[in-house]
């Protein structure tokens, strides 16, 4: 059974049924909306509607309407007291993740793993809810970085990130099909992500390119266990389907070694 | 940078499937809760009995009232998502006492509407199948089992089934009414004096049953935590349901009023207007189609109200007001399975037991609907009064919010009083319920003061939802 169009995740609200035409009044509304977003960032979490309206000189009713709109679209969230606002996870999509330079010790760990296996070894960071390859394997370059960032559901690294979300739909724009193996049904993806959580191992088998697959494990902060990065091995699709346990163990071992170096 | 208020690691309503339901699923719940197709066939004649020539005006007024109630509910649902629905919203404005009263009224409303819907579905099934009391009781049990199964399996599946069923029922009704309307009015004895102007009091008396046709339209509120984009989807679903139901009722009322324009006494003089119109044109197939559509509509209503009823219980249980066990959720289907399996059978019994004892099923159905309406009116009144208070508390009060409540609250009080004085039996049952509730409230107040103060849990923003918090 195919779901109704609304059920396709990532279809952004404005795009349902074609883009609405701009009326003469709307540019001002757009400007005010952006100002409200900016004010929430500037004032910090917990800022109230009254404070925002006062700071921007916007009429209160307009401010409330814009705030409710931004909450409905999940760029903002209401804090539990229902008065204060903070940036929602969706707002992460508005920012580019900061560039991080990898510590030399971490590079050493990656080089060690690259020396052990004949597969591609890549490290990705998940800063701000976005996947970014911070150390691609020079000998086995990964797929296009923008593609990986845009479609986290088709890469093993992206699945690590999605499995950490309360709802993966917040970070998935569009369940695009790349190959015959691409998981494109929301329910199946939910099941795959549950496997990632259960096994602590994400995998993808010919879903982005028919002949390649990858395995990835999380690099977590030693203190609170939050997800900071992902370490991936990419190689021939048929080997991913039935990975060598020793290989997986080496991957896990190197991820553990990276933990104190990256958090 | 200011200090971020402490956030929980997980929502107090965890266990339900958070943020899954699409727009259509949520909308389907509300439309089925209002069961417009059943009301289209049954209500105009009841309204006409009081309002006479002003039947259509009465429906128009009732539609405006429903839209105003939807606006009040929207003030909350744009800002918070609560599986407990109306009572959790009331808690944010009026505090624990009013919230508790609203919770009891919601339980009464949803529970009896569920029972009435089971009653409707099995009564019309009995008419279709032919048969007596035993068939009705058996049908009620079967409907109950299917409803429980659907509710357990999860709202997504239930909503799809319910949407399909209700769409078919509404389409059938609209087609039937359009055919009847195209036929013009029935030939009468010739010059019929125009119906006497019922005056304001007539319109008011007609508004009462017309409002009752809308009950259940806000049922989507209870899916707040489970809707994908709750702050957008839920208020829209509730408002759109009030509007769609209003249009359907006006159309149905117009068709029936026109149909009997040439008949002495008009629509008010009829008992089964749709069937009379149909048989006058020689369309013998209409009754069968109608019975089928109505039983489907009632079935959809039962399924939708079962979901809402279970979530109100679930929410009360999470707070400790109702037994804790009712707050458990199924690990796989992520539905409040204990609340479902313990509440729906009670609703089925509320219909099946009196029928088995010999009370005519139609009488039971009407009594259940009447009482359910009383429960809904109390809950609507409380939530409408709570809306501006809530907005003031969070510092977002605007004049439209005050104006809406200023208009709707006195009207709801009048409607409720008129309703109770018009049906003394309902007043007695409602009074007894209020006494029981008062006892329950007193006990909680003495023994579980903290529990009562914590009433009104909703799907709070948790640490993971805030950007920069988890990282």
UniProtKB/TrEMBL annotation, chain A:
GO terms for molecular function: DNA binding; DNA-binding transcription factor activity. Residues 1-28 are annotated as: Disordered. One of its GO terms (biological process) is negative regulation of DNA-templated transcription. Keywords: DNA-binding, Transcription, Transcription regulation. Transmembrane segments: none annotated. PANTHER family: HELIX-TURN-HELIX TRANSCRIPTIONAL REGULATOR, ICLR FAMILY, HTH-TYPE TRANSCRIPTIONAL REGULATOR RV1719. This is IclR family transcriptional regulator. Residues 90-263 form the IclR-ED domain. SMART domains: HTH_ICLR (SM00346). Residues 27-89 form the HTH iclR-type domain. Pfam families: HTH_IclR, IclR_C. It comes from Pseudonocardia sediminis.
From TrEMBL, chain B:
It is a multi-pass membrane protein. The keyword Iron does not apply. Residues 26-417 form the Amino acid permease/ SLC12A domain. One of its GO terms (cellular component) is membrane. Keywords: Membrane, Transmembrane, Transmembrane helix. InterPro entries: AA-permease/SLC12A_dom (IPR004841), APC_superfamily (IPR050367). One of its GO terms (biological process) is transmembrane transport. It is found in: Membrane. The chain crosses the membrane at residues 21-47, 53-77, 98-129, 135-155, 162-183, 203-225, 237-257, 292-317, 338-359, 365-390, 397-420, 426-444. PANTHER family: AMINO ACID TRANSPORTER-RELATED, MEMBRANE PROTEIN. This is Amino acid/polyamine/organocation transporter (APC superfamily). It comes from Pseudonocardia sediminis.
């Amino acid at each position: 059974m195919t779901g109704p169009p609304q059920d396709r995740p990532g279809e952004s609200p404005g795009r349902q049924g074609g883009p609405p035409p701009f009326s003469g009044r709307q540019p001002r509304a757009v400007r005010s909306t952006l100002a409200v977003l900016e004010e929430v960032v500037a004032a910090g979490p917990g800022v109230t509607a009254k404070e925002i309206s006062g700071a921007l000189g916007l009429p209160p009713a307009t401010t409330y309407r814009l705030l409710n709109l931004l909450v409905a679209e999940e760029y903002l969230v209401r804090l539990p007291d229902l008065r204060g606002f903070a940036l929602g996870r969706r707002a992460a999509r508005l920012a580019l993740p900061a560039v991080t330079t990898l510590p030399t010790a971490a590079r050493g760990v990656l080089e060690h793993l690259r020396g052990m296996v004949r597969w591609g070894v890549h490290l990705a960071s998940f800063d701000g809810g976005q996947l970014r390859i911070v150390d691609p394997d020079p000998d086995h370059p990964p797929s296009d970085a923008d593609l990986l960032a845009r479609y986290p559901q088709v890469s093993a690294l992206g699945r690590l990130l999605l499995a950490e979300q309360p709802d993966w739909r917040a970070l998935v724009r569009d369940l695009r099909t790349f190959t015959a193996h691409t998981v494109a049904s929301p329910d199946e993806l939910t099941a795959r992500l549950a496997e990632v959580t259960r096994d602590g191992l994400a995998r993808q088998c010919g879903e982005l390119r028919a002949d390649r697959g990858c395995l990835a494990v999380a690099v977590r902060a030693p203190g609170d266990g939050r997800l900071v990065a992902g370490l991936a091995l990419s190689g021939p699709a048929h080997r991913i389907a039935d990975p060598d346990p020793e290989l997986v163990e080496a991957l896990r071992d190197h991820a553990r070694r990276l933990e104190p170096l990256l958090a | 940078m200011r200090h971020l208020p402490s956030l929980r690691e997980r929502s107090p309503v965890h266990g339900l499937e958070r943020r899954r339901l699409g727009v259509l699923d949520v909308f389907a719940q509300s439309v089925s809760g209002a069961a417009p197709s059943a009301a289209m066939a049954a209500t105009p004649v009841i309204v006409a009995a009081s309002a006479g020539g002003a039947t259509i005006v009465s429906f128009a007024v009732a539609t405006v009232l429903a839209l105003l109630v939807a606006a009040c509910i929207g003030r909350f649902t744009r800002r918070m998502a609560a599986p407990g629905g109306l009572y959790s919203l009331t808690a944010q404005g009026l505090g624990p006492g009013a919230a508790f009263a609203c919770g009891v009224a919601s339980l009464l409303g949803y529970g009896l509407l569920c029972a009435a819907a089971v009653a409707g579905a099995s009564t019309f099934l009995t008419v279709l199948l032919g048969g007596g009391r035993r068939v009705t009781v058996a049908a009620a049990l079967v409907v109950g089992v299917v409803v429980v199964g659907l509710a357990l399996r999860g709202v997504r599946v239930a909503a799809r089934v319910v949407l399909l069923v209700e769409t078919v029922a509404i389409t059938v009704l609209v087609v039937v009414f359009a055919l009847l309307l195209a036929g013009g009015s029935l030939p009468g004895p010739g010059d019929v004096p125009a119906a006497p102007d019922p005056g304001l009091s007539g319109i008011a008396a007609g508004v009462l049953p017309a409002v009752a046709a809308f009950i259940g339209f806000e049922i989507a509120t209870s899916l707040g935590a489970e809707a994908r984009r709750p702050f957008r989807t839920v208020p829209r679903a509730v408002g759109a349901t009030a509007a769609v139901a209003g249009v359907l009722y006006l159309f149905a009322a117009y068709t029936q009023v026109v149909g009997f324009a040439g008949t002495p006494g008009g629509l008010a003089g009829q008992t089964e207007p749709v069937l009379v119109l149909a048989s006058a044109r020689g369309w013998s197939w209409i009754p069968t189609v109608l019975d089928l559509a109505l039983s489907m509509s009632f079935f959809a209503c039962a399924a939708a109200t079962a979901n809402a009823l279970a979530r109100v219980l679930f929410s009360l249980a999470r707070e400790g007001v109702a037994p804790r066990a009712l707050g458990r959720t199924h690990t796989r289907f992520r539905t409040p399975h204990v609340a479902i399996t313990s509440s729906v059978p009670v609703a089925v019994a509320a219909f099946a037991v009196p029928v088995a004892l010999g009370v005519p099923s139609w009488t039971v159905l009407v009594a259940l609907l009447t009482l359910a309406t009383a429960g809904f009116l109390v809950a609507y009144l409380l939530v409408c009064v709570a809306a501006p208070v809530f907005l003031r508390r969070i510092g977002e009060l605007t004049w439209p919010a005050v104006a809406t409540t200023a208009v709707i609250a006195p009207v709801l009080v009048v409607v409720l009083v008129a309703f109770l004085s018009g049906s003394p039996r309902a007043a007695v049952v409602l009074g007894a319920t209020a006494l029981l509730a008062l006892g329950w409230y007193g006990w909680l107040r003495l023994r579980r003061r903290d529990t009562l103060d914590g009433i009104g849990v909703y799907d709070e923003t948790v640490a993971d939802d805030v950007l920069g918090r988890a990282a």
